Every structure is written in structure tokens, then in C-alpha cells.
């Protein structure tokens, strides 16, 4: 490798005293040292920031702010980071020891990419774990993801903590995490970056993503309404701002999202809400899933009517 990339790691922190030291140590124990660790404490009240202070060293910067949400904390870290590349690590997750080295190999292989990422492992407290990668690529392969949406339709093959972005990408000030949103704010940014920059991918799980952590936005969350990130994707599609190569798969992903919501509505007994989503023309972009969901809604409505009559 001609030059070692300088990678800043941004860690948004809010009340993760139980996990934050482990997360920071997962960066410190990398086979390729991080350029810096930028911890943005988002108004923690459980002593999380004090734990970081006690771990202080030349590699850590602690920034404190009043509670403003994870998006604003990450954005603050982006603006403060000094490395050529910016990684993101939530305070309850962790890097595998060779994550940054794997990213460095990707950078060397695909120097013009704007976003670099790997697979990840979902980890539960009981020890159960599931790996998320690209099933069609060989294990360990380094590839370019030409159509981010097509691959995202088949499952989340990467996650925020497995993504590194070239800092120059953020010269576009519109490319930031949307403030005030608790679900999908990370997807929103990755969608928009992937629409205008090459995405390089290492097909190996290099990050541990802790599941079912109390207090996290995704813990026990049921998505029963269209997320803002998908509304904005729909707007970009209508305005012709999604690259032609990705347009069909973006519409298919949007349709899947709407049908997932319809199923969530049905599970909550809201047949009318599920039917309303079936009438949305955007849902037709994924015909097979549409028909399966329509059948599920019809059967669910029949079951609820029988239950009401009994």
C-alpha cells in the first residue's frame, strides 16, 4: 500500500455507559490504527462521557453538546473530523480487529470511490448471531456495488458502523444525516451518497452490531408509517434525480417498504390502513410482493370479520 489512509472514527454517544468503553477499545485494538476517535456526547446523563474522559489519550477527542439526537451528533463529528476518511461507530457496537485494515485494502483497490463498506454481524445478548453480506459475491471479495438499491432490496448488506466515507464527499453540505429523525436517518444519507458516488464493498462481516439494546431507536420499533427517507427517495424518483441505472430497483425498494408497512398495519388490526397502502400506485413496482401482501391483507380482513361476528 502506497500510503496508510487517515481514518477518523466518529462515535455518537448517549447513555451507553455499559458499552462505550468496549466500543472505543474495539477501535484502539485495530490492526491498522485509526487516525483519531471523535466522541460526540449528546447530553448523556448516565456517566458515559466521564467514562470516555477516563480513557483519554492523544487518539481521543470528546465533544459535548446538549441532547439533539444521533443525527446531529454524527454531523457534529463529521464537521470536527480531521482524517481523510470518516468511519462511524455507535457506542454499543464494535469493530472486528481487521475492519480498518479491510477498509484500507478497499481504498487501495478502488481509490476513486466515495463510500467504502463491509458486511456485519448481528449479535444478540444470548450469543445468537447472524451475518449480513452480499450472497452473490464470494466471501472476502472486493467489489463495486453498481446498484446500491438492487442489493438493498435483498437485505441490508452493510450498516452505518460498517461504512467509511471519503471526507471530501461531505464538502456537499446537503450530504448530512437528517436532524430530528430516529429511524432511517442513516439510510437516507447512504442512499444519497450511493446515488452520486461509487460504493466499494468488502464481502466479509467486519463489524459487530448489537441487537435489542434498550434505548436504541430500533429496539422494539414497529414501522407503521412511511419513513421520511423513503418519502424523500420517492420525491427524487419523481424529479428524475435518481441515476437511471438505479431507478427500477429504487422503485422496487420503495414498493417493498410500503408493503412492509401494510403488513405492519395488518398486524395491528388496521385493515383500512393496509388497504390504503395497497392502493398506492408506488406499491405496484414490486408485483410479486404486492400480490402476496394483498392476499395477506384479504385473509387478515376475513379473519378479523369472522372474529367480530363470533
Please describe what this structure looks like:
With 310 residues, this protein is an alpha/beta fold. The chain has two domains: 7-210, Spore Coat Polysaccharide Biosynthesis Protein SpsA, Chain A (Alpha-Beta Complex), CATH 3.90.550.10; 228-309, no CATH class. Helix content is 39%, strand content 19%. The protein has helices at 20-28, 48-54, 70-80, 99-109, 148-153, 185-196, 228-238, 244-267, 271-278, 287-309, and strands spanning 7-13, 36-42, 60-65, 85-88, 94-95, 115-123, 129-132, 142-144, 163-166, 199-210. Strands 1, 2, 3, 4, 5, 6, 7, 8, 9 and 10 form a ten-stranded mixed β-sheet that branches. A hairpin with a 5-residue loop joins strand 6 (115-123) and strand 7 (129-132). The longest helix has 24 residues, at 244-267.
Question: Topology of this protein?
Answer:
Blueprint: E1 7-13, H1 20-28, E2 36-42, H2 48-54, E3 60-65, H3 70-80, E4 85-88, E5 94-95, H4 99-109, E6 115-123, E7 129-132, E8 142-144, H5 148-153, E9 163-166, H6 185-196, E10 199-210, H7 228-238, H8 244-267, H9 271-278, H10 287-309
Parallel strand pairs: 1-2, 1-4, 2-3, 6-10
Antiparallel strand pairs: 4-9, 5-10, 6-7, 6-9, 8-10
Helix pairs in contact: 6-7, 7-8, 8-9, 8-10, 9-10
